[in-house]
Amino acid sequence: MNFYVVFMKECDVLIPLIIILSVILILLIYCIVFGFIAFERSFSRRNYEGDQVEAASKKVGNRPFHEYFRKGIYWFKDFKSKEEVWIKSHDGLNLKGYYLKNENSNGKVIILCHGYRSFPYFDFSASAKYYYEEGFDLLFIVHRTHLESDGKYITFGLKERYDFLEWIKYVDTRHNGKVKILLAGVSMGASTVMYTLGLDLPESVKGAVCDCGFDCPKHVIGFALIEVFKIKPLANFMSNFVSLAAFFKIGSFLGKVNTKKSLKNNKLPVMFAHGEADDVVPFKMFEKNTSVGSFDKILVTSKEAAHGLVFYYENEKYRKAFRKLRELSGM
Questions:
Q1: Which residues contact 224 (CB under 8 A, 6 or more apart)?
Q2: What's the mean pLDDT in 271-280?
Q3: 288: confidence class by pLDDT, cuts 50, 70, 90
Q4: Does 6 score more than 60 pLDDT?
Q5: What is the mean pLDDT of residues 287-303?
Q6: 84-116 burial string, b = 16+ CB within 10 Å, else e?
Q7: How many other CB atoms are there within 10 angstroms of residue 313's CB atom?
Q8: Domain coordinates of the chain in residue numbers?
Q9: Second CATH level (architecture) for the domain 62-216+257-329
Q10: CA atoms within 13 A on the CB side of 255
């Protein structure tokens, strides 16, 4: 009788505990599965049908300043002497770029680093022509896992920073070291530029333009997940499982790189641009990026501009800031 009573009492404790542990296990499995599914959906290649320049034009849609977007895209398409160039990435991928030699070339090159699942001639549809008119040769790079470049997964700057370093070396070698280089990025491209500034760069690199970049891949994934989970702390929590999937798929957690680390010891002048109406990369990330380091910073902001639109909304301020960057970088 005593044994039965003791057994029943133990059951009274164990059964709720088993239920709780089972629920926790089920939730954990759900979180892990979600992380891997979200990773595959967010980090895999997106294919665009037909002519890629036309696909970029179609992507413009009716967004603000759409007519200027298309004008810039077709300026790129109609550029007669653009050269297709290729490099090997540090891990063996074939990466494509387009080199536009300036007819009034002055030994200065700007390397243009586009954003997530985008086109180089889309993100720089306005600013590229301006840079060209300022006398720069242009190198439009195509990120890994985008368009014609090889790659299975986008890595939000984790591996792209090393690809970008190879592009810098390519330009340096092409000009026998007698060149001055500016780096320019939009969105994920801007983050890639900021992460690259933490690497050992050739002396030919003189400065950078970073337009609406995020501070850390994990943070921007967490911000994107707010649309799914509605509650910010829960979205941030779930980003840990996407990061876990990244570790298994690409060999690195998403928090491995951030601008706090990469910009800490940077000495090159950087022009930062960001719109307060940005709902893709929140403005607070701009504030984080610009609070790091003791290098020269030129800031361009806009209350109205959404993601990647500061050049359009604050055109004169943008141009003035770029002239200041050129002055500070000796270009």
A1: 42
A2: 97
A3: very high
A4: no
A5: 97
A6: ebebebeeebebbbbbbebeeeeebbbbbbbbb
A7: 19
A8: 1-44+232-250, 62-216+257-329
A9: 3-Layer(aba) Sandwich (3.40)
A10: 10
